């Protein structure tokens, strides 16, 4: 195993603050209780453009399954901040690879609640690095009581809402983060 992968796994485990049970889920009991049977895929209704992009990329099945994830779901207003035509171009069938790369940059392995992220940020002297499902990294910091994720280009996405689901957590963010190139 590479050192980078071991670090990513250790970070994910530290941030989730929960262990794996016999069913191999890392979702906290509190998250399951709060969400009932609603999965991450079903919980994206507050973010219609992001939900449509997830379906177009074929990631909805993964977000409906038992594997726990943390989803940073850009609001529709966040997509409006992109250059005109960006999302429309990514939604074309021939751009599926680019769309999937963008979306997997907004998905983190495991369940990372805001409180867990805040603790990791505090323990890291004001910042924490988290690995995305797409293999990139984001820096998490705090701005007052809010969690802020930054990409390599300096785009800042503030968590403005969200909620726990049966297989993870959704953090609604106010910007679209871009994978490094």
Mind sketching the topology for me?
Layout: H1 3-16, H2 29-35, H3 48-57, H4 60-64, E1 69-74, H5 76-80, H6 86-90, H7 96-104, E2 107-109, H8 114-123, E3 128-131, E4 137-143, E5 146-150, E6 156-165, E7 168-173
Parallel strand pairs: 1-7
Antiparallel strand pairs: 1-2, 3-4, 4-5, 5-6, 6-7
The Rg value, from CA coordinates, equals: 15 Å
Number of separate domains: 1
Distance between the termini: 24 Å
CATH topology: FAS1 domain
Strand-pairing-aware structural class: alpha+beta
Sequence stretches where pLDDT stays below 50 over 5 or more residues: 1-32
Biggest β-sheet strands, sense, barrel = 7 strands, mixed
CATH superfamily: FAS1 domain
Taken as a percent bin, the fraction of beta residues is: 15-25%
Counting DSSP E segments of at least 2 residues, the number of strands comes to 7
Q: What is the spatial order of strands in the main beta sheet?
A: 2-1-7-6-5-4-3
H/E series: HHHHEHHHEHEEEEE
CATH architecture: Roll
CATH class wording:
Mainly Beta
Short description:
This protein is an alpha+beta fold and about 180 residues long. About 35% of the residues lie in helices and about 25% in strands. The protein has helices spanning about 5-15, 30-35, 50-55, 60-65, 75-80, 85-90, 95-105, 115-125, and strands at about 70-75, 105-110, 130, 135-145, 145-150, 155-165, 170-175.
């Amino acid at each position: 195993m590479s050192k980078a992968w071991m670090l990513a796994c250790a970070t994910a485990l530290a941030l989730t603050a929960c262990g794996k049970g016999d069913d191999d889920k890392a979702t906290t009991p509190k998250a399951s209780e709060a969400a009932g049977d609603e999965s991450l895929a079903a919980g994206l209704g507050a973010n219609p453009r992001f939900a449509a992009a997830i379906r177009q990329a074929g990631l909805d099945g993964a977000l409906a399954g038992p594997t726990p994830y943390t989803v940073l779901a850009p609001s529709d207003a966040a997509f409006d901040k992109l250059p005109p035509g960006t999302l429309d171009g990514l939604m074309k069938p021939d751009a599926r690879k680019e769309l999937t790369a963008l979306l997997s940059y907004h998905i983190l392995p495991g369940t990372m609640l805001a409180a867990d992220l805040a603790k990791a940020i505090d323990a890291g002297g004001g910042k924490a690095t988290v690995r995305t499902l797409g293999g990139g990294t984001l820096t998490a910091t705090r701005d007052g009581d809010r969690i802020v994720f930054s990409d390599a280009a300096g785009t800042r996405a503030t968590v403005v809402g969200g909620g726990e689901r049966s297989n993870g957590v959704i953090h609604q963010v106010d910007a679209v983060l871009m994978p490094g190139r």
